[in-house]
Predict the structure.
Amino acid sequence: PTVTTTAITSPTATSASGGGNVTADGGYSVTAKGVCWSTSSIPTILDSITTDGTGTGVFTSSLTGLTSVTNYYVRAYATNSQGTSYGNQVVFTTLSTLPTVTTTNVTNITDTSASSGGNVTWDGGYSISARGVCWSTSTNPTISDSITTDGTGTGVFTSSLTGLTSVTSYYVRAYATNSQGTSYGNQQTFTSSVGIDENLFYKYLKVYPNPSNGKFKIESYNNFINSIEIINIVGQKVFSKNYLKKSKSEIDISNQNNGIYFLSVTTNDKTFTTKIILQK
């Protein structure tokens, strides 16, 4: 017989659909037709097969009992009294039994919170029992780290990350869990912002001139200044002074590039933060 193999469709972790077309019977009745498959190239009817009727024409086949995340080779076959012939070989890969999930970008970043989420695009053939995001100050966070729990099932979800520390780098991954385990999305990273209450700062302290060419004066109205710290817009510390124990101090960051910086001043038992501008 003459037979062609159709493309594989609808692959899952354990099954797929295929088929073929017997275009000629070779002058003898086709007594069996179907597909054969194997994890090795050039499968035959000695491997796994379907039996999908007799005669010429198009047929469809259901491949079952497959192993997840495995490459399979498939050929249609047709048998008459003279022997068995095979169609062209097609190759496909079964899906994972674990979910497939992607991580959305991190937005709405503050000093203590941020927003993210994900999209569960495949449940692995098993119901999604939990989904959300996990985060840590170390790479590749897991559900053993800080997490959100944002529903079940496939689809898009949003997450609120809370309890963050200001000016800290975090790594975030979406996760999705089914009865087979937990999988993770791509990793996102962000840095929490500086917590600023400028009204509170200027209630107890004064910094001038601001903007400045790099030299700033700081005065405390009521308490001694214990320490001063300045970080840049990406969270890097560029200046610090400790154990000052005085009500006035001067700082010089003229060696830094122009831009916005965050000045944190610690008095007796409180830290106050404001923006300063370096403009040379």
The mean pLDDT is 94. The longest strand covers residues 83-93.
